[in-house]
Amino acid sequence: MKDISAFKSPVEAISERKCEEYAREIMGITLVRTRDSDVRIEPNRSCRSASRLATDSNAAQEGEFPHMVAVGNRNSDEGNEFIQFCGGTLISHTWVLSAAHCIHNIDRANAVKIGTTRLTDQKGVIIPLNMR
Q1: Residue 17 falls within a domain, yes or no?
Q2: How far apart are CA 49 and CA 56, in angstroms?
Q3: What pLDDT score does 84 carry?
Q4: Smallest Cα–Cα separation from 25: which of 67, 88, 70?
Q5: Domain that holds residue 82
Q6: Residue 108 near residue 73 (C-beta atoms within 8 A)
Q7: Peptidase S1 domain location, by residue (predicted)?
Q8: C-alpha distances in angstroms, 78 versus 73, 81, 102, 103?
Q9: pLDDT truncated to tens, each residue of the chain (132 aa)?
Q10: Is there a domain that residue 101 lies in?
């Protein structure tokens, strides 16, 4: 069997880099680059109390999964109505990683909803997507 590293691209994808950055954040370390090109390591406590697994089919508690987002369509005709059809994960403060089929039809997915544990709640924020 061939070594899997032989199949890996020599150029790191943005999604890989962002995923590694987010992994460092939830592990409690953030790299901070300064003008002096020194790199400082600062603790990050933003996800300290978050559980990393959904278990036993229990309802999620407020703030328990701060990295989860709903991917869907904001219906501008109905005000703030949001129709969710996929999930996603924040891999940085501005990037969401989701399955390819969630955005395959660009007309379908036009927003993400963050900051709520129930999609029917008025809580949370709906953010328009900027596809790249």
Answers
A1: no
A2: 19
A3: 84
A4: 67
A5: 68-128
A6: yes
A7: 58-123
A8: 11, 6, 22, 22
A9: 445 555 556 667 777 777 777 766 666 555 555 555 555 555 545 544 445 555 566 777 777 777 888 888 887 666 667 888 888 988 887 888 888 887 776 567 788 888 887 777 777 788 887 766
A10: yes
Residue 57 lies in a domain: no
CA–CA separation, 9 vs 39, rounded Å? 26
Sheet order of strands, 68-75 included: 96-98, 81-90, 68-75, 111-114, 125-128
pLDDT of residue 52: 52
In the block, tokens 């933003």 appear at 46
Our count of domains for the chain comes to 1
Q: If you search the block for the tokens 């955005």, which residue do you land on? A: 103
Query: Which pTM does this prediction carry?
Result: 0.54
- C-alpha dihedral, 48 to 52 to 56 to 58, nearest 10°: 50
Task: Single out the residue of 103, 27, 107, 116 nearest to residue 70, CA to CA.
Answer: 116
DSSP per-residue string spanning 50-63? --S---TTPPPPTT
